[in-house]
């Protein structure tokens, strides 16, 4: 029997693509079925990080370096409280200060927060190699008291990139030559954007 070559999709999104294309389309409920093939909706805080790779989008499930998820706002967060980042085996803890994400024309389009997963409870807590970047979009809304649109952080949905610190260059740090920063389109059969390559 002849060997059958199964194409492997590698997802190489820039931060601008994650916010301006993927997160923006999801917030507007555009192309949701196609988006979910690479970035499904998962409450990452309900799962241990070791379980997340198997919950990744069908086109990215075989990736061994990074996984992406749309994360809905928690009910307590919608009521003005702080989100719970505790799982059954540990918790996610923010590290450093949030950073702005800029577009290619130097416009602020979002905010990125980096977190590290700590395993265990109370005195047995141990820092792990699991990390996560949480992205939230910023959109401009009209303000009746102002002549200019006012930037507003979108809290209803975030996009999270989960990965393991390995000490080597990760996939999103080494986009193949020829894959540029400009986001393309998604069609019904696959994700046809500059952030995807087929091996």
Word description of this protein:
- The protein has 199 residues and is mainly beta.
- The chain is 11% helix and 31% strand.
- It has three helices and nine strands.
- It has helices spanning 15-27, 32-35, 75-78, and strands at residues 9-11, 66-72, 90-94, 99-102, 108-119, 126-141, 150-153, 157-164, 196-198.
- Strands 2, 3, 4, 5, 6, 7 and 8 form a seven-stranded antiparallel beta sheet that branches.
- A hairpin with an 8-residue loop joins strand 6 (126-141) and strand 7 (150-153).
- The longest helix has 13 residues, at 15-27.
- Residues 176-194 have low confidence and may be disordered.
Main attributes?
11% helix, mainly beta, 7-stranded antiparallel β-sheet, single chain, two-stranded antiparallel sheet, 199 residues
């Amino acid at each position: 029997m002849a060997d059958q070559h199964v194409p492997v999709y590698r997802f190489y999104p820039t931060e601008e693509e994650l916010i301006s294309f993927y997160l923006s389309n999801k917030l507007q409920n555009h192309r949701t079925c196609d988006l979910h093939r690479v970035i499904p909706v998962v409450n990452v805080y309900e799962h241990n990080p070791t379980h997340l790779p198997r919950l990744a989008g069908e086109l990215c499930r075989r990736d061994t370096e990074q996984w992406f998820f749309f994360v809905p706002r928690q009910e307590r967060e919608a009521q003005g409280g702080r989100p719970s980042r505790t799982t059954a085996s540990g918790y996610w803890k923010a590290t450093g200060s949030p950073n702005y994400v800029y577009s290619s024309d130097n416009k602020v389009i979002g905010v990125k927060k980096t977190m590290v997963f700590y395993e265990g409870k109370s005195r047995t807590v141990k820092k792990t190699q699991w990390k996560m970047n949480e992205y939230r979009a910023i959109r401009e809304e009209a303000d009746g008291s102002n002549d200019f649109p006012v930037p507003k952080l979108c809290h209803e949905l975030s996009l999270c990139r989960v990965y393991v610190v390995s000490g080597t260059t990760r996939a999103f740090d080494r986009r193949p030559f020829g894959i540029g920063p400009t986001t393309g389109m998604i069609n019904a059969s696959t994700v046809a954007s500059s952030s995807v390559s087929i091996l």
